[in-house]
């Protein structure tokens, strides 16, 4: 039987280090679609690469610090070559389309996906599931809306019937590849842990296209998984990055070993945890273990994960439903005090990195409106409110860390 195929947009860290390998393990040939011609050329020359599991020696890999998994059955196309994209969508062996390009890039790939779906309809192609693996809530619904804008009504109707659009939670720390040598540009280093949870009800389950894949979990309660991951792993990660930046640490593992930083991060995750337990009915004890496991993941020295990567785009991370304010607002619903989460929010307002446009924009807001005014604009906590005052007070305290 001819091999089933997947198209994955974004041959970056998560694409090559997480989603691509799981697709290959599940028997798919993966066609990576990217704008980076160097990576695409490499994929089409070598058709294989290695994933280096950089465990910290406490979990699966007790003796060695690294083990490798070979990934074959891969090729590439440029998203700028529309004919190639359409040809792949027309291929009846293609059954799943995934993305990991970054939230702002979804609108850029939407026209190509729309053209691909038009082509698939015109060749009477079968059912397809689309799963956007981006760190955001409702990422695939967002992609669906963006794609639908480029479809005429008959194509829209066909897509409603033939295309499943499933949101997901995607969790594995994959920093930019480092130290594998110039002759291995496709290799990527990852942590051992991973979790990929997909909204079962949104999938089109049809014949060969049925999911889950190896390593993928289906759920009818995606919100619980997304909140747990975003308000724990991503929340703690971001706070570690912002506090680490203030103390001049380069990487996350260095920052989390600092007792002052660890106390705040742990406190913030406990506050967020009380709210998550209330909202989603997680067992308190199990959630505490999840927090411990998360902190242990931050300690992994082999990942050498830069605080600037984890802290990137602070305004996005200060979004109302995102990793910092999401748990603050959730805790507020239950009257849970959140001093450490608000310290984390304050630290984000002190993140001053010149080559990060969102950091520059945030600093400009602070300059123009003062801290309280900027906090009000970004967090929607009015000047004079308890939350606004706590963030401003924490900001002034944390500012001294930077000066020290
Ligand atoms: N790296 C990580 O540990 C994790 C990342 N994520 C999410 O995965 C997504 C991707 O993150 P990374 O893989 O780290 O980023 P990355 O920067 O390594 O990869 C993004 C890829 O998208 C490609 N790209 C950019 N514009 C494109 C376009 N118009 N068409 C096609 N490809 C395009 C880039 O060339 C790059 O290869 C983000 O949403 C991130 O939040 C989620 C969980 C873990
Ligand atoms: O990719 P983002 O949303 O900028 O945030 C970085 C975060 O994403 C991850 O790369 C993976 O979830 C985390 O390591 C980190 O918390």
How would you describe this structure to a colleague?
The protein is an alpha/beta fold and 404 residues long. The protein has two domains: 5-220, 3-Layer(aba) Sandwich (Rossmann fold), CATH 3.40.50; 223-403, Orthogonal Bundle (N-(1-d-carboxylethyl)-l-norvaline Dehydrogenase, domain 2). The chain has 16 helices and twelve strands. The chain has helices at 13-25, 37-46, 82-90, 106-122, 139-148, 153-162, 222-246, 252-256, 259-280, 284-298, 307-310, 314-317, 325-333, 339-349, 357-379, 386-403; strands at 5-9, 29-34, 49-53, 67-71, 74-78, 94-99, 128-132, 163-165, 168-171, 188-190, 195-199, 216-219. The strands form three sheets. A six-stranded parallel sheet has the order 5-2-1-6-7-8, sandwiched between helices. A three-stranded mixed sheet has the order 4-3-10, covered by helices on one side. Strands 9-11-12 form a three-stranded mixed sheet, with helices on one face. Helix 4 (106-122) links the parallel strand 6 and strand 7. The protein starts with a strand and ends with a helix. The model has no long low-confidence stretch (mean pLDDT 95). The structure holds 1,4-dihydronicotinamide adenine dinucleotide and 6-O-phosphono-beta-D-fructofuranose. 1,4-dihydronicotinamide adenine dinucleotide (NAI) binds at residues 9-15, 33-36, 79, 100-103, 105, 108-109, 133-135, 170, 172-174.
